[in-house]
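Sample 1 of the test manifest.
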Amino acid sequence: MKIQSPDSSSPKKELPPVLAELHALIENDLEQTNRIIVEQLNAQVELIPTLGSHLINSGGKRLRPALTLLTAKMFGYSGDQHALLAAVIEFIHTATLLHDDVVDGSLTRRGSETANSVWGSKAPVLVGDFLFSRSFQILVSHGDLKVLEVVADACAIISEGEVLQLVVTKDLSTDEERYMQVVSSKTAALFSAAMQLGGILCKRSPEEIEHLANYGLLLGQAYQVVDDALDYSATQETLGKTIGDDFQEGKITLPVIHAYAQGNEEERAFWRLCLEDTNHPEGGLQRAIGIIKSRGSLDYAMKTAKRLADEAKEHLKKFPASEERDTMLKLADFAVNRNY
Amino acid sequence: MKIQSPDSSSPKKELPPVLAELHALIENDLEQTNRIIVEQLNAQVELIPTLGSHLINSGGKRLRPALTLLTAKMFGYSGDQHALLAAVIEFIHTATLLHDDVVDGSLTRRGSETANSVWGSKAPVLVGDFLFSRSFQILVSHGDLKVLEVVADACAIISEGEVLQLVVTKDLSTDEERYMQVVSSKTAALFSAAMQLGGILCKRSPEEIEHLANYGLLLGQAYQVVDDALDYSATQETLGKTIGDDFQEGKITLPVIHAYAQGNEEERAFWRLCLEDTNHPEGGLQRAIGIIKSRGSLDYAMKTAKRLADEAKEHLKKFPASEERDTMLKLADFAVNRNY
């Protein structure tokens, strides 16, 4: 089994400059992380590494493990445990994606077929469980209870967020606050944990770790808000998954919350029909995109994301300038300005 | 939300004497465990305790947490952490059942509707993830890395066993050794972990913990072998789930492995049709039960279970006689002689 390195894993498009810069900065660390991923995916049952590497190899940006590695490097870490913790972050991310895709019935991700579309929904549930378990085995071998606490807390928050997302699906009474709660839990909690692990590893003060956690949380929020906006604005080719998935599934995201609040009676009836009854008229997605644009709802979402990213940067600016810090500052801008 | 105590949770039938004795012996501990389960199921998202308690309340025998409690009591434990660890064992058991029932598409368990039959398959996947995560949060608060190691290892083994079971489904070349590997991983690993936690908590020697682990492993194996035999011999009313589920799903269990090996050409063709092609002729299950009886395959499975239970008891006999030990000895016999 070959795990591709992140910079060779996405043949369809060039890496944007900030990601290329980021990968160059921690190239060796990422390679070490990839080696650990291969080792730790090993199991007696061949389907586990096969299915696991299908997703891990599929050209993800390795953003979350990169945060752990960049943070460790920013503090001059010289040991070999950072790659182990980064691998755990990627495993947990992968486990949540496997379960997500089963729950959503998604057929494509990152331009490839999802695991459930290749193997059916049974194996991804169980391999996801394996990745969670293996993550905790690795953390036990690392032996730091504080690290275990951060990861266990993040996992609980993520699963709670996923359940919340399920509960608010098709419910147009969902407000922005509730939406941000979903975003914070299901996505931003792992960004935050990834940052904290770097800080804990380097024995930083609780105050510093708090800034790292907040940067991660706000970056993750901005990232997910943009993700949700892209579902109504990107092209399928650049996004690597089907456009309008959220719309089809009745997910209530920020553009919709804004457009629904601003809409006239007829538009609101349209949203209810599509999202609450998931009864999609011919051309429904195009009409949804049209309304969202005309109501300024994409602009609103992007402004929200920019505000979160700017706030994220403030927390990072508490640390002295360094290549790693400055790359993470740019990463916050990239989270907002990307088109996939 | 009310979590029923185990002895009031199964209104349909009287507890068999050994379970009544067992519950009486650790009544307070089980009550404390149930209180912790209620507390720890709490989450901001109401669906989590609702769905979790649906299964936890459904009249399970609480065998696995009882093992932790009995072991702690056998060693005279006087603290309050045993109930916490027992609750974790029940959470992990519940999480695996939630995921199992989704993977198998099962509609009934313990005589009630499964969570996936009430809420669909999405929520049980995510609530299962929550229970895993919450378990590790609890263990981190307990703070013993050895306990964390035992549980993380058990979880990895369980999920690996579940994947293996998936892989060998509908594959009649599965032999007894491979079958025992599935049984050991998916079921017996948690029985073994439950025993070990009791021993670790009471700071027993590695050799003693090894005996506890082996008792749990062998007990769990015997228990699952009987479970699989009951799928061809019990009545639906006593079993609390649909008879012939394994047969319908193409699961290759010990009675089938034996009957297939002993069968004539016509019987083997029947097994291939039913289990590999899952093409079930009218009256297929009745014919399968008939063949299994006539080939002595149920007897073979029950003898195997009895041998495992006897071996389990040998490990427990290394410890001085006590009410707890003797109840666990009887429990090994019950695992074999039960009819549900």
